Amino acid sequence: MSKRLNLVLITVDQMRGDCLGVAGHPVVETPNLDHLASTGVRFSRAYSATPTCIAARASILTGLKQEHHGRVGYQDGVPWHYPITLPGELARAGYHTQGIGKMHFHPPRSLQGFHNVVLHDGYLHYYRRSERGRSSDDYIAWLREKAGPDVDYAEHGIDCNSWMARPWHLPERLHPTNWVVHESIRFLQRRDPDKPFFLWMSFVRPHAPLDPPEYYLNMYLQRDLPLPPIGDWVAADVPQNPGLPTDAGIGQLREHELRRLLAGYYGCITHIDHQIGRFLKGLYENNVLDNTLILFTSDHGELLGDHHLFRKSLPYEGSARIPMILHLPRSYSPRRAGVYDVPVELRDILPTMLEAAECTIPPSVDGMSFLSYARGETPKWRDYIHGEHAHGGASNHWLTDGKEKYIWFSQTGREQLFDLRSDPLELHDLVQCTDAKPRLEHWRRIMVQELQHRPEGYVQNGSLVTGRPVSALIPGIFK
């Protein structure tokens, strides 16, 4: 059993797919992730089909499409009852399973197949409103042991969805990013040595608050940071600062505020990268580096001012496209490195991990294992991904094959079409272009096929229907 691959899933929260040095970002420094990518496989067209925390993590946990796990928007407080989970299948196969950091399950102490979880989900309004919720946060207890009984990680006053940025207000070693690595190395030291292990190591950053330690914020404050792209389809009346709410999803920041936002976000990413380097040393020092598979990804992206938009939930690349890196240890053979542009999704993580563990993939799983790409093989792959998000008047469905993207806003009927090969920043909406009409009709037909059996009634008489009621939960799945 001990010769089976150990498995480490590293997730971050709200990291864009383009924010890697190895992916060509002109500013962001990610040396440790770049190394994992250059000696592993990187998927340049990886997506989060429902790009917010809870629904995305449901896909990771279950290997299911959003229409099957039932979460198509953001809603706290809904219990997680899934018969098949990634840690559960691995535990049944003899793995020692551990979750550390942000899980975002409900209730928070729900194990979901793990033998143990050590939690810090960040500032979640649903749980911060009651002491019961705060008592489930292991990081807070640890922080108060180290820094005093009244200390709180939110003392700096930056909201958990804010565009503001400032340095971390406590010693760097007390930052929640450092804590996740501290606890992960402790697990390596305390695990059952007679079993292979599965560790889900989950960071809250670079999700706001944008509070990297001062060193990392300073790295970017004085640099010439590229400003976000603004598409020619963006309305001219987008509200401007001053007076923009700090948790706004849309608006125009003043340039100095926008540059500070970018510096804080990039600083959080480089801080995480350096701490991942610390964890890699921990794997080496505990004699498991050469037998451990590492998979790195994010639950969704961050619009970061693209098209005057912030946060996530929308179908644009900044929100929906994510990093995806699979690194196999030197002991695995055959082992190949490369970059692939096939459309992969978070639901593909479960079957990939199960195949690496030599486990049977349950037939109910929707995802596909991409492990064979790391062996230098090119399996038959899906043609496209269907994504969606319940988001009030901006509720949306979208399709992409990594080359084109079609978007349908279900409450207004608005459509958009982008050619991602020639227009990766989504600057030009092709919907009104005569030459693009056949492609628009092609994608519209596929969307009808995807939605024709949905209980919301998005399709009637073979056509998309605008204005149907939307909910964060698909009707009939949750009792």
Features:
alpha/beta, Arylsulfatase, C-terminal domain, 2 domains, 8-stranded mixed sheet, 4-stranded antiparallel sheet
Describe this entry's structure for a reader.
- The chain is an alpha/beta fold and 479 residues long.
- It folds into two domains: 6-374, Alkaline Phosphatase, subunit A (3-Layer(aba) Sandwich), CATH 3.40.720.10; 385-464, Arylsulfatase, C-terminal domain (2-Layer Sandwich).
- Helix content is 28%, strand content 16%.
- It is built from 14 helices and 17 strands.
- It has helices at 31-38, 53-62, 66-69, 86-92, 125-128, 131-134, 138-147, 176-190, 214-221, 255-285, 317-320, 349-356, 371-374, 437-451; strands spanning 6-13, 41-43, 46-47, 96-101, 116-119, 197-206, 292-298, 321-322, 324-327, 338-340, 344-345, 385-389, 396-400, 404-409, 415-419, 459-460, 463-464.
- An eight-stranded mixed beta sheet has the order 5-4-6-1-7-9-2-10, sandwiched between helices. The protein has a four-stranded antiparallel beta sheet with strand order 12-13-14-15, with helices on one face.
- Helix 8 (176-190) packs parallel to helix 10.
- The longest helix has 31 residues, at 255-285.
- The protein is globular.
- The model has no long low-confidence stretch (mean pLDDT 96).
Structural class: alpha/beta
Sheet-strand content, in percent, reads 15-25%
Could you tell me the CATH topology label of the largest domain.
Alkaline Phosphatase, subunit A
Average pLDDT works out at 96
Radius of gyration: 21 Å
Q: What is the strand tally? A: 17
Taken together, the total number of domains comes to 2
